[in-house]
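Each letter names a residue; the fold follows as tokens. Both lines appear below:
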Amino acid sequence: MYKSTLAIAVAVGVLAQQAGAAGFLEDSKLSVSSRTMYYDADNREGGNDNRESGQGFKLDYLSGFTQGTVGFGVDIQALWGIHLDGGRGHHPNNSTFFPSDTDGSAVEQWARLGGNAKARFSKTEAHFGSALAPNLPILVSNDGRLLPQTFEGGTIQSKEIDNLTLNAGQLTHAMGRASSNRTGLAVAGGTQDSNKFQFAGGDWKVTKDLTLQYYYANLEDYYKQHFLGLTHVFPIAEDQSFKTDLRYFDSSSDGANGDATHFFSNNGGFAKNPGEVDNKTWSAIFTYTLGGHAFLLGHQQVGDDGGFVYLGQGDVRRDGTTRNEGNGGSSFYLFTDSMVNSFVRAGENTTFGQYAYDFARVGVPGLKTSITYLRGDDIRFKSGNGTYSEWERDARIDYVIQEGTLKGLGASLRHGTFRGQGESVADQDQTRLIFNYTYNFL
């Protein structure tokens, strides 16, 4: 991260000489975001509860582009997390909410600085640096705690062809949502960093209502993955619509995967070949919207041969020893990526539903609420003999002030209840209270 930060600093100095060029300064954006968060994970079957609160600040400077056939610019990001209160004995050493000190307690604060150099040619943009936050089917940057997860590497996006967006890139490291340091890339169970995640694909907007997607990703020595997606919105009437969202992942082993150092835990479940990636997962989501009401129903099936795999941040050193520095926590492009559980073990069939309401329809803009229920069945025991089930219920209410001095201040209250059987993760009740505010200087 330090080398990339130095490179960004040099780039800023060079571009500052061209700052008079229209666009570089005129199109710049500068903002500071604040997030205050209370996090309570109550493990119902004993063990260490996680009950902490903190304050996060994120400063983003996004320049415009210099003039010329190829325009250049920089993005700079500074992150700062502050520990407010953990409640004595309520900070597990493996917490992903705060980094741990040498004695296992939460550190008082942590910070990191990153940035990207960028270039634009016609309708194509390239970004290189340590503040990348992709949001793609094969890679979703996690923003579920005080500060966001970011990645180091390079990405390129092209919109040269109408209605077609192409994305490609290579990532080498990640910076965790509760860490000052960068680490390599791996999957759950891996003890050796990969440092080479490559991807390519695109989104084709066939019509204004139909979008098709294809992406390919490869985490060297861990897995190869193909993704196919379809999204279609059928307008029924002025205030009614029916949305179909289909997703399919096909993942297989790559290189050293399966060896002791490149082991995949298969999310703690069954695997036909222990340690190896071998999975096909599909999901179908249907949403009916009527005014402020949204009714969602869906189903997801994880293949019998092994668990669903997704890019994780390595929690290991080069010598294979673990380190609890708050660098864990990853997201993935499935509806079952819930508050507490993931529903991605071998054989798991998950049926889920959600009801959401937007109170703007009754004169209270900015107020939204939702309740979600997921039930996973047919989860294969690690031995392969027998199955078990699990369920989760999540509820949330969000409000954003629409006008006045505090315009833009948002509050979110979320509660999740998870219960399982067999080899499932421990039962847990989880509560989060979050306040967000962003002030734009430019």
Observations:
- The radius of gyration is 22 Å.
- Residues 101 and 107 are 5 Å apart (CA to CA).
- The longest strand covers residues 70-85.
- The domain at 2-440 is CATH 2.40.160.10 (Porin).
